[in-house]
Hints:
- This protein is of the alpha/beta class and 161 residues long.
- 39% of the residues lie in helices and 14% in strands.
- It has six helices and five strands.
- Helix 1 (25-37) crosses helix 5 and helix 2 (55-67) packs across helix 3.
- The protein is globular, with a radius of gyration of 15 Å.
- Mean pLDDT is 91; it is low at 1-10.
Amino acid sequence: MNPANTPIAPTVAATVALGADHAGVAMKAAIREMLEAAGHPVLDLGTHGTESVDYPDFGAAVASAVAEGRATFGVLVCGTGIGISIAANRNPAIRCALVHDVTGARLTRTHNDANVIALGARMTGMEVALDAVRIFLDTPFEGGRHGRRVQKLSPGWSASP
């Protein structure tokens, strides 16, 4: 595991879309700084201040950026991470997981092939959040039996009668 102050040099610099509401703006800024230091291009979709805003707008913006291919991954932050993850998951191309630690970040990539993570700025400490983002971006999808399960989460899948 990497210490919180050591950036991971990405194998491939993936563009990461960032979004946060007013409660997550400080954590988003720290994540952006860490990503840029690690060589990741960042698409910062706001917000940029602490004035009250609606988290669904930023969840949708990041989801659209990932779904359209403008970003490979997305990172979202609101107070708890719950609402913004629900907003992102309304887009059928998105598999957004709410994570609280490195283990959740790693497993959502290996088992669920998540393309977006959500963090709660009021629930998760800054260093833990930074570590979780690093691990999320550095962990490949495992495939195998998990591929079959992820396919069942994909648009157009339906259970056979």
